[in-house]
Amino acid sequence: MTATLDVTDLRKQFAIGRPAIDGVSFAVPAGEIVVLLGPSGCGKTTTLRCVAGLEHPTDGEISIGGRVVSSPMRGILVPPRSRDLGMVFQSYAVWPHMTVRQNVVYPLKHRKITRTEANRKVEEALELVGLSEYADRPVVALSGGQMQRVALARSIVYRPQLLLLDEPLSNLDAKLRLRLRDDLRVILKQTGMTALYVTHDQAEAVVLGDRIGVMRNGKLLQMGTPDEIYNRPADLFVANFTGATNELVGTLVSRSGEFGVVDFGDGRRGEAALLQSLSPGEKVRIALRPENIGIGKQDGANIFPARVLDRRYQGTQTVYAIDLFGLRLEALELGTAARHQVGAETQVSLPREACWAYGDSGPSPYE
Ligand SMILES: Nc1ncnc2c1ncn2[C@@H]1O[C@H](COP(=O)(O)OP(=O)(O)OP(=O)(O)O)[C@@H](O)[C@H]1O
């Protein structure tokens, strides 16, 4: 039976340093895949290990399927083996001296099921991960990607109520990683399992997650669908981490509903979407994705003169460095033909719904 996961106000303080987890709350509904995304050291692995029972939280509560498995306040700490979890880690946790089938059947050995039933479950798990033909091969004769499929089959063969995955693709080469990434979502959705997945790779998060939680410094900054995270980032860090690599700075002059007029200095004004509560007179920072900058375009509201500083072909796209207001911004155009010459004076259009304005509190992730 697949189950919901509830994490409430989770805290973890190790012996030294700032809290590794600092008041994190989220829920994973039954059958959903939630991805925790963030840079190294943000606390995502510690969160997953607390859910697994491998780490003892300092405070907060964790429930799986409505049963509290961890609550320091109430003196509850259910050991990992009693939480009915499956786990897949970065390293291929397979037994090298066994065949694929022996590896996958292993977790069923101590369960009270018949041999026929166990064989049926193993066949089903191998079929799901696409390894039916490899059942009797020694596991050491497989590629890294196949070994990770074995580890996955072994974690889902007993249909635990929750599956935990910690960077399971990071030891694979680029091609295998992409293939298994795409397959993984299909496999997880076929099993209908609830899954918590940890990664620092935003592309992985988008492909796999029904929802993504972005973490930084032990805090959960935003939890939302990939569309929400990508198109309405809650703050500058989320915007920057998910690819809005350009920043403009200005002062909010006036606001009208969700949009506002921003003064960039020297009489240059443009419109921006206000993603935080902002008042006229406030200094604002605007995050902008390279792909949302239109070079050589003269339509829309925010049209400004600019100059092409540099360009790099990247196969199916071209990345330009452009000078705008004396700043160096990155712009990206799809297509195999580079249309703009280095040194060209041109115009750029910045769609107002793609100019995300935030307050100026705290350090900027762009500096
Ligand atoms: N056993 C430990 N003892 C002391 N500090 C720890 C321990 N484990 C983790 N930390 C610290 O807790 C913080 C969060 O670490 P965590 O491994 O959860 O981050 P992460 O986002 O998963 O990073 P990575 O992707 O590098 O694993 C870091 O500052 C780390 O140094």
From TrEMBL:
The membrane topology of this protein is: Peripheral membrane protein
Entries under PROSITE patterns matching the protein: ABC_TRANSPORTER_1, ABC_TRANSPORTER_2
One Gene Ontology cellular component term attached to this UniProt record is:
ATP-binding cassette (ABC) transporter complex
Q: Where found, per UniProt?
A: Cell inner membrane
Q: A single GO molecular function, which one?
A: ATP hydrolysis activity
User: What this chain does, per the record?
Assistant: Involved in beta-(1-->2)glucan export. Transmembrane domains (TMD) form a pore in the inner membrane and the ATP-binding domain (NBD) is responsible for energy generation.
Q: What protein name applies here?
A: Iron(III) transport system ATP-binding protein
Annotated organism of origin? Bradyrhizobium canariense
